[in-house]
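Ticket #4471: complex job returned nothing on first submit. Input attached below:
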Amino acid sequence: MTSLPAPAKKKLGLVIDLDICVGCHACAVACKEWNDGGDFGPLPDDDPYGSEPHGVWFNRVHSYEVTGTGNREQGTEERTSPLAAGRQSPVPDETAALPLPVSRSPLPAPQMVHFPRSCLHCETPDCVTVCPTGASYKRAEDGIVLVDQDKCIGCQLCAWACPYGAREIALPHPKSPTSDKGRKDSKRGTMQKCTLCVDRIYNETLDERDRQPACVMACPTRARMFGDLGDPDSDVSKVVAEREGFALMPEFGYRPVNRYLPPRPRRDGATVQATATVAEDTLDAEQLPPLLRWLDKALSR
Amino acid sequence: MKPALSVIFFTVLSGTGYGLWCLLGAALAAGIYPFAGTGVLVPLIFGFVLVTAGLLASTMHLGRPGRAWRALSQWRSSWLSREGIASLVTYLPMLAVGWLAFMGATATGTRIAGALLALCALATILCTANIYRSLKTIAAWRTRQVLTLYFMFALLSGGLWLWAWLALTAGMAISLAFPLALLALAVVAAIIKVDHWKQVDAMPANTAGHATGLENFGRVRAFEGPVTEESYLTREMAFALARKHSARLRRIAIVLFAFVPALGIVIALPSGATWIAPIAALAAIAGLFVERWLFFAEARHAVAAYFPQREP
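Support reply: We reran it on our side without changes. The output follows.
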């Protein structure tokens, strides 16, 4: 049944911190690995060892250059401070004698923001309602959006209805020598998408701390968090409230569950120096050894 | 959007077939259709070939065509499911009209069957158009004109075939009002289509900043895609080839589906040159193939904004 279930209390989803994601693609690789071997595997590749290896990935990491996050407090004034200010090597070398490069850009330095993109497990998604077969469905108990691989006819309308690019179909690659065999594989010709590792998070054969999506387990910077976004007291809901986490393209009305935490403003050279001065001023003289305390007193005069 | 041939064949051929059935059914219901028996069966069967060929072509778009029957289950929410049901239901009044024509049965029965055929054909065209119109992610398909154009193109293309059949069997003099109505339809459809294209051109494309929500933090440029290779998303949704040739293709489409049939009607009516009618019908169907190719190829999907923009 592809009509949406009544809104559930439980909304399992991910929170992705764009401030600390380093774009290492570990989440994407871990996702591919788990879903190639888990209950939903194998996750098909069109042409894995050929010249055009077009495979299905549930999770893909994009990189964006964002200009303006760096020094919002300073606007876009011309910056003439040396780029390497405050970061000079303590060991003098020949290059130290050369003049430091000076940025005359009217814009602040751009920041790279890495952006993992996967299914947002929306509350009212069209990918479910457009499905003609009932293969695409939203679980009433926890809100996970899944595709029943035994019912999907591969019409791709759900992928067309998704503005987040969460769905990819597994079609046999025309050049792949295994394409004929692949057609018989139950995974071929059907729509694939993130399952929120439904075969991990409820898996009682796994250690309790491992009952999390593979992407969350793999993230080396803890930029990905998993939890119940329907519960305002959950850790994920708290961090979303604290950091003003946002949903993607809300105007479609699909009400995504996943949230992204915004990148924090970066400090440029001038800001670094300013904070360093502040730190010096708050030096607690009482904590210093007697000789230094005297020195501090003498020099502060 | 990638213009898949299967879907282009489906919408153009089935649309033409349903347009033909709709007009034939309406004429039978109104009691103004000049023939009975074979005169009904030939256009009816021609419509059957078009509709069935289109529906079979649409299954080629499926990853698992063998499971196509499952698409009939979700009529409560899915326009594709409704289209599947409507297309199959339409075969019933079509068979009834055919059987009555074959048996030479009563006028009342033919009228009722004809009316049902016309209504079912219209319902199917409505469902087909709504499959595309219901996708919020493709702004070019959300406009008012899309629904109107699907109806007009089906009636124009199917109508020209019906006119060709009438003209070839009974001469040009049998009906003047019908080809003149088709002439008006061709002109109005062309005007609405041009209006639609203008509206599509004026639509702002989705941006990386908006798609990622990062526009609130600065100016955003898609620096790097997730993989160096193409993926399903870039091949299917970020299709950019059409923009390069779109102006020329649009002119070709308008000339073929509107100008050639209109000119054909203007020449054929006074001269009585019946051979022009099938040529006009062929031109219209060819024009609609180009129009439908552009309908897909020019439509921008919201997801394309996530990827670094490639020049067409």
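Strands of chain A lie at 12-17, 60-67, 111-117, 136-138, 145-147, 167-169, 191-193, 224-228, 259-261. Closing as resolved unless it happens again.
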